[in-house]
Specification:
6 helices; single chain; elongated; mainly alpha; 164 residues
Length: 164
């Protein structure tokens, strides 16, 4: 009887050890259903797409024509846009143009930081192309910081992505 209980004891320990050993899985797996920093940076085309996102956030057609509404090159007779409030002199700090300007610029700056931090992970990328694309990302970032400084004065200056 004593041998059966000792055998059950050893079998229980063996099963416990076996379960502990099989549960040690790699927890840093890249998701398979969406992009992340672990699985996105695998081709020069994807790096180029991220750089294009920076250009898109720097200037788009809507922003270009909105700036024209602020100048004397375009007269806006009807409607109630943020630009009309600004040109009429009734704009406040809560005007949508000011809020959107701030968030768009920092979205573009974050896209540039993400690009600069991860472009070196792209395999088989031509070094001349990588160097040129890094310079473009730094230009976009500087342009966005310049625009923020012109509109708002002193602004927070980030040189890398920060966790939110």
């Amino acid at each position: 009887m004593k041998q059966k209980s000792i055998l059950k004891y050893y079998i229980g320990i063996a099963c416990s050890l076996l379960m502990c050993m099989t549960s040690c899985n790699d927890l840093d797996l890249a998701p398979t259903n969406k992009f992340s920093d672990l699985n996105y940076w695998d081709s020069p085309e994807k790096a180029s797409a991220m750089l294009s996102k920076g250009y898109e956030l720097m200037m788009d057609a809507e922003y270009y024509f909105a700036n024209e509404r602020l100048s004397d090159n375009l007269y806006e007779g009807r409607g109630s846009t943020s630009e009309k409030e600004i040109t009429s002199g009734i704009a406040t700090a809560a005007t949508a143009r000011f809020i959107n300007e701030w968030s768009k610029c920092y979205e573009g700056i974050r896209a540039c930081h993400t690009f600069l931090e991860n472009v070196d992970e792209v395999p088989d990328m031509d070094e001349a192309l990588r160097t040129r694309m890094k310079a473009e990302a730094r230009y976009i970032r500087a342009s966005l910081f310049f625009r923020l400084a012109c509109h708002y004065g002193d602004v927070p200056l980030f040189d890398r992505c920060t966790s939110v």
